[in-house]
Design goal:
Blueprint: H1 2-16, H2 22-38, H3 42-45, E1 56-59, E2 62-65, H4 67-77, H5 81-84, E3 86-98, E4 101-111, E5 117-128, E6 131-139
Parallel strand pairs: 1-6
Antiparallel strand pairs: 1-2, 3-4, 4-5, 5-6
């Protein structure tokens, strides 16, 4: 009987305290971003980013800060679905830096009627209020 009670306790504990899967959660977030982008929904795509003035973007124009600036840049540079094209990510590496931060390296590709483009990105994710969010994005 004691063994049964112990096993039941273990089962209930595991169900109440699921193990975190940072890589799976981050891959899902990135897949959700791709789906939103490919539907022309930039605001939905941006849900993967930290809504903070401290959000950092590094690109060919330099460093910029803030969620509003990032959203504005996306809307300016990808003003319609022709410019947005169809996005695809190739994740090369996801590495946990701690229980609350991860580092991601990948490639991005846009298939567009006006010319395909692509590059490489480095993302820093932090777990904020229970959600993995991009806090720094270096894309070139």
């Amino acid at each position: 009987m004691r063994i049964f009670c112990f096993l039941l306790f273990c089962l209930l504990y595991v169900e109440a305290h699921p193990q975190s899967d940072p890589e799976g959660e981050i891959r899902k977030l990135l897949n959700d971003q791709v789906m939103a982008w490919n539907q022309g929904k930039i605001e939905e795509f941006m849900k993967g980013y930290w809504d903070s003035d401290s959000l950092m973007f590094i690109g060919k124009s330099g460093i910029s800060y803030g969620y509003a600036a990032a959203l504005g840049n996306y809307k300016k540079n990808y003003s319609d679905t022709v410019r947005m094209g169809q996005l695809r990510f190739e994740i090369l590496r996801i590495e946990a830096l701690s229980s609350a931060s991860c580092f991601v390296i990948g490639k991005w590709f846009l298939k567009r009627s006006i010319g395909d483009i692509g590059g490489i990105f480095t993302l820093v994710f932090r777990k904020i209020k229970g959600h993995w969010l991009i806090v720094a994005d270096h894309t070139c």
